[in-house]
Design brief:
Length: 232
Amino acid sequence: MHTPYASRKISLYTTRIACVLLLSIFTLILDVYAQESIEHFESTITINKDGSMHVREAITVHAEGNQIKKGIYREIPLLYSGPENYRGTVPFTVTSASIDGTPLNPIETETNGDYIRVLMRGKQPLSNGKHRFVLEYDTSLHLRFYDTNGELNWNATGIWGFPIIEASCRVILPTGVAVQQTAAWAGLTGSKDSNNITITKAQANEATFTLARPLEPDTQFTVAVAFDKNSI
């Protein structure tokens, strides 16, 4: 039989345990909530008649000052593999970059092996929360031409160390050039998982790919568009 004093002691101990458990759960919730991520990655690829491309990427991130401090960088492959085992680098020019609507000037870039790294960062640390980066660049030699068609196969997001919550990519062919076939995949490099991807065609010469699930870190979202090989 417990004495009143012993009952109060047990009750106080139980209360303390409950508080510790609640605090631990609350801390875990905060850690998840505060995770840095790419909230949305939206890209638009406009293909010109000569085969060159203009790419616009709007990247909204959630920053917490951990890895995302003054900004982010976008790493884009420059290696080209063509017919007869030709290998070289593709033309690449950054045309603009901004953070939360403020243009970056000058725009910093650095070459890292077969990649170019565009550094989108300001002079001061970013506040915690959402920030929007917009990058535009011109490039070419990304189209491939086969016996039956021409094709763009494009890693629309690149590979990041953060989860990407939402991703979409719009491909626009030259006026009068119709989209013949489309495909898209999400996952690790080489994945052919096409689940949870919707493809719409607002115009005959364009296709929009939307990924309806988050991308895990170190995975990618790849889109493909086929067209008449004699049209570009």
